[in-house]
Amino acid sequence: MPASLSSSQIDAYQKDGFLFPIDAMSSGEAASWRSEVEAIEQTYPDGSLPQPVSQYFRVGAHVVIPQMARIACNPAVLNAVQSILGPNLLVWSCELFIKEPKTRKIVSWHQDLTYWGMGETDGQLTAWIALSPATSQSGCMKFVAGSHNNRIVPHRDTFHEDNLLSRGQEIAVDVDEATATDIVLQPGQMSLHHGRMFHASGPNTSEDRRIGCAIRYVTPGVKQLVAERDYAMLVRGFDAEQNWINVAAPSEEFGAESLVLYEQIRRDQAAALTQGASQKVGLYAETASRM
User: What does the pLDDT read at residue 70?
Assistant: First the structure.
């Protein structure tokens, strides 16, 4: 498949570390995806699965939910990502970030690659797709242009209850918020951002949920440097490096084999994602299985 971004868009991404808005799908398709997400929430109340459905949304949704694997394979998304990373692409994680209306949930200033165990690679980016309006009022992301040119800066854990990040991590140096760009997206639009980008988002003061799907793409040359092993799903091209245990898209929602694999991935990734934490990181904490 051909790459889809223009040379000027690619130059803007390289300069700023992010690019938006990019059309990933129609507004009608985005509404359909949102309906599927909300139907899953209704179908699987807490106690019906080994973990709450919110856990599966936030960590490795593509491993247990076919709809999330499909959105990660959307050709329009892959074409844009290929423009930046090249023709061979894997999905390391697919996540849903949901802010309920009139709530104070935020995402603090951070760099994605800080705790992922991949070093400071340029071979990773995130595609963030809006399934509902992402506005300044609803708590859209905001980026500091050019901040991806920094190395990974010191972070501290807050474990604040209103922080959507796994350990409430935040950059331990001052960030000039006056220089930030609000990443306003309509349903069906997406942004791309570099893994060293300084970014955050505020509370949702609107009357609607803010629902975004964050897909973390890597190239085959990226390696897990902290955990003993890690996993990814090949979605375009081929993987000649074999740095990742390759996983296939699930064939059914929350199938027994997929749930077992999910827990294995969660345990293995915890070695990197909880490294140095002063307390348990809830999304990766050991829990008693109810399977």
Answer: 98
Whether residue 244 contacts residue 231, with contact meaning beta carbons closer than 8 Å, is answered with yes
Residue 290 placed within a domain: no
Examine residue 1 and state whether it is found in any structural domain, yes or no.
no
Q: How many CA atoms lie within 13 A of 65 on its CB side?
A: 28
Cα atoms in the Cβ-side hemisphere of radius 13 Å centred on 145: 14
Q: What is the largest CA-CA distance in the chain?
A: 51
**Range of 161's domain?**
7-284
What CATH number does the domain containing 146 carry?
2.60.120.620
pTM over the 0.90 mark: yes
- pLDDT tens digits, one per residue of 179-234: 999 999 999 999 999 999 999 999 999 999 999 999 999 999 999 999 999 999 99
Express the helix, strand and coil content of the chain in percent, nearest 5 each. 30, 25, 45
CB 98 within 8 A of CB 38: no
Count of domains forming the chain? 1
What is the DSSP secondary-structure string of 74-118? -HHHHHHHHHHH-S-EEEEEEEEEEE-TTB--BEEEE-GGGGSSS
CB 211 within 8 A of CB 33: no
Per-residue pLDDT tens over the stretch 19-56: 999 999 999 999 999 999 999 999 999 999 999 999 99
